[in-house]
Amino acid sequence: MRMGRSEALDLFAKWRTDGALLRCQASFFMYAFSFRVKVIHVSPNEVRLASPNVQTELVLKITDKLIFEYLDDRSVSGQEAKDYVCCLAVFYTEPTEDEDGETIAFAEVKL
User: Is the pTM of this model over 0.85?
Assistant: First the structure.
């Protein structure tokens, strides 16, 4: 389900307040990565995330060009539905039928 910029920022703020552990997974043209983070700062222009031991930090710049999509157990099944509460996918390029687009996704880990 598509969501707007303000709704995405609200979800990041909720995760920050809750101290939620997130799985961050990204896929870009030339590389991919995955690690676990917590939200440490939310502003209208950026979201800062850090590893639980605060030795690694990721800054997500929020621009009007980003596309946000929300997923939860209504749209995800299998093991992912068991492991995660919900997910926010951030698209840098519009997904097509043939390609997912350049994406970074944040999934709240069920503890």
Answer: yes
